Amino acid sequence: MMGSIENLETALALLASLDPKRIPLHHAQVIVFLCKQDGWCTYRTIEQRFDLTNASVSRILNSFKDQSPHRKNCLGILETRQDPNEGRRQVVRLNDRGRAFAKALVGLTENRDERLPVKK
């Protein structure tokens, strides 16, 4: 399973290297990165992995949440909570819908006719 996700991550990185300003794949790259995480992940980890600012990571992750005060349409694939080790930080992970989407995205579902989960 991890080999398929890592291959997808490599392909996305290659595409992004063509012209990151015209092909903004960092949202997809962050989703793939979160798929590989075992548990919760800090914003800082994402910032360092993709060389992004805190503001950029915040915008990306806000678009993945169920709702955001600054966005009308959110994907509903991410959950957040306060970091138990550092109360001033938030940690994130894919929620059930996000993990189901990730499995479908990389073709890992056992039933190939299974549809992507629809937000309610």
The gross shape turns out to be: globular
What is the CA-CA span between the terminal residues? 28 Å
Number of helices: 5
Strand coverage percent: 5-15%
| CATH topology descriptor | Arc Repressor Mutant, subunit A
- Adjacency order of strands in the biggest sheet: 1-3-2
Could you explain the architecture of this structure?
- This protein has 120 residues and is mostly helical.
- It is built from five helices and three strands.
- It has a three-stranded antiparallel sheet.
- It is globular.
- The longest helix has 17 residues, at 2-18.
- Helix 3 packs across helix 4 (54-64).
- The chain has one domain: Winged helix-like DNA-binding domain superfamily/Winged helix DNA-binding domain (Arc Repressor Mutant, subunit A), CATH 1.10.10.10.
Spell out the key features of this protein.
mainly alpha, Arc Repressor Mutant, subunit A, globular, 3 strands, 120 residues, three-stranded antiparallel β-sheet
Give the secondary structure arrangement, pairings included:
Blueprint (H helix, E strand, L loop, with lengths): L1 H17 L7 H11 L4 E2 H8 L3 H11 L13 E5 L7 E5 L1 H10 L15
Put the structure in a nutshell:
This protein has 120 residues and is mostly helical. It has five helices and three strands. Helices cover 48% and strands 10% of the residues.
